Amino acid sequence: MKRVPRRLLIVPAATTLLAAAFGLILPANAQTFSSSYTSSAPKDCRTIGKPEDSNGSTTQVCPGKSGLVVLISVDDLRETVSVGPNHAAAAKEPAAETWFAPFNSTAHTVEWRAVDGRPFAIIQRWLIADNNALDKTGSPTTKPMLAVTRLPPGPVCHVAYIDGQANRNPNELARQAADEFARDFNCGKDEVKVIGEKGAAVSLAKR
Fold it and tell me: Where is this region: Disordered (predicted)?
């Protein structure tokens, strides 16, 4: 029987150890997280019902991912955002009843966090009015905040808030919060998390 030289046995073993040390060997069940984007601009959505001129109330349905739609309702200059397989289902979710006391609006880009191609959370940029900080015209300035919302299966609700000015990397913090907390978040029981530094926008939103 021919013996393999000892030095030839050491090289593969050393290579394996180095690969493990530098994270080159991935577990068989490793999950792949990703982001994709949809628009919630009025031109890309359809209006449900007839807008009310008295208080500017509107309800719009916007296309989402994986058969889901985004429901955006505006009432008295305040928005709610929910998600579901259709607008009727989205309107019954906890997120459809979650609103902030100050005037507010959302940006027109919805980020969808997915694992292995299946979306489990959305991230949206909100602008919260600050009546204590007025601009040159006397109108309230707005403070940016990112909100993480969990998706079905299970209820749709807010999971985390990230202040857009108090943190240098709010987008990264929002993605980390979505990946770590959204899928196991218990709507109605768990308290919405504040991630990173709590700035003006988050303070206004949680009044």
Answer: 35-60
